[in-house]
Structure formats: structure tokens, C-alpha cells
Amino acid sequence: ITARANSWVSKALSFVGRLQLVKATLASMQTFWCSTFLLPMTIVQECERILKRFLWGGNGRGKVKWAEVCKPLKEGGLGINDLKTWNKALLLKQVWDVLTGKSIWVKWCHAYLLHGSNFWTVAIRGLLSWS
């Protein structure tokens, strides 16, 4: 994320241009990691710091609280996803898929990880993470 943000010249872009890049590229880069791992709070804070710095055009203070920026457009925000909430939502989607889905990945999880056990009570074995 840092490399991508640093490759663009934020001073030459308008605020709307920076907002579009944040929403379309920088925030979407986190989707894979958010849907796969429960990110540590330090990582979430660092990612948000990078997004804030790029959006506001430098290291200065933001003009609005980040919590307000992360609200939907209808509520007066800018529609940027709150990374902590987005991370939990995407992980819950994975749980929902395991409980209700019929994809190849879900079948593999049931065959090799759950072994017919209840999802909510299965013990974690070896070096597997809960996610």
C-alpha cells in the first residue's frame, strides 16, 4: 500500500482524484487480506495512516475525523470502508460460506479440516489458524 501511494504524486491531484484512488485502489488492495486473516490492530492503524496521509495530501492533520470519513455517502461521509469493520465482515462471510455454501473450497474444508464435526466446536489442530 505504501509503495502504491508513494508512486502517485498526491500534490498534483485534486481531493476528488485522491479520494477516487483511495476508494478504488488502496482500500481495495486490503480486501484479500481482510477476507483471509484477522488483521492485528497495529496493521489496521498503519493502513489507515497511509490512507489518511494520501487522502489529505501530506502529513498534516486531516480536516475531518476518520470515523466521519468512513461513513456512507448517505450519512455524510465519503464512503471509505472502515478497515476494522470491513475485516470482521469479510471474515464472517467466510464463516457463512462454510456453514451454507457448496463450493469446492467449502467441501474441502468439511472433508479435510472439519471431518464432519460441528464448525462451532471443532478443535484447532497443529499450526492451523482459526481463520
Automatic annotation (TrEMBL):
PANTHER family: OS12G0587133 PROTEIN, REVERSE TRANSCRIPTASE ZINC-BINDING DOMAIN-CONTAINING PROTEIN-RELATED-RELATED. This is Zf-RVT domain-containing protein. It comes from the Eukaryota.
